[in-house]
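Changelog note: in this version the structure field was regenerated for every chain. One regenerated record is shown below for reference.
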Amino acid sequence: MRVAQCLEVWKMGTINYLESLKLQEKLVSDRKTNKISDTLLSLQHPHTYTLGKRRTDHNMLIPMSQLKKIGAELHYTQRGGDITFHGPHQAILYPIISLREIGLGARNYVEKLELTMIELASLYGVKACAGQKGETGVWVGERKIGAIGVQISNGITSHGLAFNIDPDLNYFKHIVPCGIADKGVTSLRKETGTMLPAEEVIHEQLISCFARLFGYRSITLKESSSVLSQNEKIE
């Protein structure tokens, strides 16, 4: 792997899923033309189900008409992977980075995303590991704690990973998570059984794990206020 330089981290707070898609599309375009350096979006979403480009609607277990009643949305995307859930108390990272510049192929990239979540879990004494063949993501035994779904366009990444800190796991009952019917879902809170630090601390730890594993020498942070100001120019 080549040596990465600076990573710009945008701390977005909670952002609507469609807004994050639009932002990612703009950043991917800018990264392709070198208008920006490698960028990492750190955020959470309101209750949202997303489907990948395989369009596995059969893994949605409730009618579309019921989504509003449970306060959730459904969106179709061009990422890899199957259906998944995003919601409060979940740490999400969307890297907009050039794989060519850091010398990574797609498989190695996904493996490093898995290692990012495995390292975070280990900080709390939770032994997580990558899934078996065909089971992308991070698992604690037979329970999934972190999901991965990526899109790569001309060597530039988007979408990314979602790590369960303490989301409402009942929302996963309405889907076949990642298309795997015989396994469960878990969270850091459930696995530790103890009081966790503030979620902001865990988000920062996840960012640090990512930066270290991908070899970034320095991190530049942008808080939500400055990011929102820049977003107004994107509209």
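Spot check on this record: Residues 106-122 form the longest helix (17 residues). The chain has a mean pLDDT of 89.
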